[in-house]
Amino acid sequence: MATPTNFQPLPSAQVCANGVITMGAPVAQMALSLKQLNQVKFRSAGYYHVGRSTWQDWNSINYAKGATFGGYQNIPAKGYMDEFDLFYFSLPTSEWIGIEITYGAASSNPTSLTGPNILVELYGISGGSIGAKIDEGILFTYPAQLQILQRGQLTGLARVNTGSRLYTFPSGGLSAPTFPRPLYIPPANRGDELAVRVTAEEVIIYAVHLFDIYQEA
Amino acid sequence: MSNSFTTPPTLADEVTVVAGQVIGEGAVTAMSDTANYLYAYGGTHNVISQAWAEGQFTQKGTTYQPMVEYMIPIITHEHYELHLHLIALGPGGIRSTLTIGSDVYTAETLSTGAGPHIIEQTVTVTSTPLASYGTLSIEVKHTTGTPNHHEIRTLAAHWVAKASPLSTGALPDGKLNIYTPFGINRVGNDYPLSARWGVDMLENIETLRRRVLAYTSWSGVDNLFAAPTSVSDPAPAVYLGVGDIEVLFSPVFIPHEAFDGDNFYTITVWFNMVNISALYPSVTYVIMGQEITLTANGWSSHDITIRPDQDEEMSQLFNFSVYRAGLDNADHNWEFLLNIEQNPTLTPGVPWIKGLCIWGV
Asked: How, if at all, do strands A45-51 and B46-52 pair?
């Protein structure tokens, strides 16, 4: 039976009273409600918005005490790197992490070896430091997944995500990042405090949203 | 009689308890176990998540300066450890203060690593919370050494999950809804399926449905050591501007029942305002289709009761209803958020948003 995604109406408490013949439906409704809570509501997530410089060299505004007016940053130069370690507090039921990234990319550079790309990897946290790599990660590349949206000399904004299709690992595991897919948390690491490392080349990151993929039980 | 649970829980197969089936103890035990687990772990993921680009969230001053501030939900009275993780650079200190009603709890960490390093802090709540929310303020200072500043790159926090077994007796959540733990031995074989079990299960499910989750958490960075004078200086956002309309929202699942106004499933928007005054007595913003008019400075909360449009692409990709919890592309937001005509340089008295947090169920 499918897992309900919304809060379904619960039976009246009267059906549980002494002397009432309990049919199956009320108990099944309770079981389904718990399944909804476990599989849908109480999924882990971390929604990171990335604060960037608000300095603007025009119209005498300069700092203007800090806010983004809508003109985004200058397009990143060749070789520009951006790296973030983002904490993900997984739950014992966490298994696959879906990702959505908001970004601005550099213009295509024919002399660039790789062009704009975003590498996303999953690490454990051990002894107060980033620990062992748990998932070799995924690579968003241009033009396969990333777009370039220029507004003059400024970047436009675009979004990219992993989708929710689950990945079958090859026997022997991975030794390099794959195409974009949800990141995998092995059973031994579920419920742990984890770190998602996002390394962007010729890409400016504005937001990274991490969330457990919804799966029917 | 222990209120124990397993992690992860084994879900009951609802097919075994439909009409015509004998209600076996296996399903009832599994349901009790799952409910106890959900009480312990539900909502213990990120309540705060925010990051900054290199060189933005920095402090050169050698005395503590309050720099960011958030509202966080008190998920239950049993979850009393708020665990913070930060990525920091340079020598300095971080002091986190959680204020719940009149109670104040603090954690402080000094570190010296020049490169990026993890700072973990635990703020422990020692008294029964008298409010359903708390204010978390982060202060930062620099200490002697190189580089000449203390910098934060990532900030995240979560409530630490409870270990098995749960405490005995009725357990209130942040809004005083009651959860009654199940003694796992009493739902085992040879015990009756009592009326109390059913009544408690219904109330417990309702309590868990109402538990608050954090959707969006954003704070401006205040009290830099000095205002920037060039493009190479730190210049993080202090307030929200029209440029944030395209960026500041989170893709979240929201049950449809949360958009009805006749139940307890609420979406709450918190604003931290500055500059509301006699000259500018009110401003209006639009969050998820709801116009919200603000008339006071500081933090204020507002419940949303209408249904926004879902994100069709994300909903199809991820197999359930995904909504964007954040600023709408609406006239009021273009008018009242900081913009090229209204900003601290040209119109210093205009009200602005210094913090925005959105919670749901």
From this structure: parallel
pLDDT at A190 over 90: yes
Q: Is there a contact between B241 and A67 if contact means CB atoms under 8 Å apart?
A: yes
Between A125-129, A194-198, A204-208, the lowest mean confidence (pLDDT) is in A125-129
C-alpha to C-alpha distance for B304 and A26, rounded to whole angstroms: 31
Across residues B17-32, what is the average pLDDT?
A: 79
* DSSP code at position B348: T
The SS3 call for residue B215 is: strand
Q: Regarding predicted confidence, which is higher, B321 or A76?
A: B321
What is the DSSP-derived secondary structure letter of residue A37?
A: I
Mutate which: B5, B160, B201, B323, vs A, most A CBs within 10 A:
B201
What confidence tier does A167 reach under pLDDT thresholds 50, 70, 90?
very high
For residue B61, count CB atoms less than 10 angstroms from its CB and return exposed for 0-12, middle for 13-18, buried for 19 or more.
middle
Q: What is the pLDDT of residues A43-81, one digit of tens each?
A: 999 999 999 988 877 656 666 667 887 766 777 877 788
pTM of the model: 0.95
Q: Domains in chain A, start-ordered, CATH in brackets?
A: 1-42 (no CATH), 44-212 (2.60.120)
Q: Which residues of A touch B340 (CB under 8 A)?
A: 59, 61, 69
Q: Count A/B contacts: CB-CB distance under 8 Å.
A: 312
Q: What residues are paired with A120 via a beta bridge?
A: A138, A198
Whole-angstrom CA distances from B236 to B73, B214, B226 are 26, 23, 12
Whether residue A23 is predicted with pLDDT greater than 70 in this model: the reply is no
B11 to chain A, any CB pair closer than 8 A? The answer is yes
Sign of CA dihedral B4, A128, A125, B94: positive
DSSP codes of every residue in B236-291: --SS-BGGGGGT-EEEEE--GGGG-SSSS--EEEEEEEE---SSS--EEEEETTEE
Rounded Cα gap, residues B122 and B141, in angstroms: 19
Residues 147-166 of A with CB under 8 A from B: 157, 161, 163-164
Q: Which residues pair with B48 in a beta bridge?
A: B157
Q: Which of A168-172, B123-127, B300-304 has the lowest mean pLDDT?
A: A168-172
CB B173, CB B210: distance < 8 Å: yes
Nearest residue to A28 (alpha-carbon basis) of B198, B10, B249: B198
> What ipTM, to 2 d.p.?
0.95
Q: B38 at the A interface (CB within 8 A)? A: yes
pLDDT average, residue stretch B221-234: 88
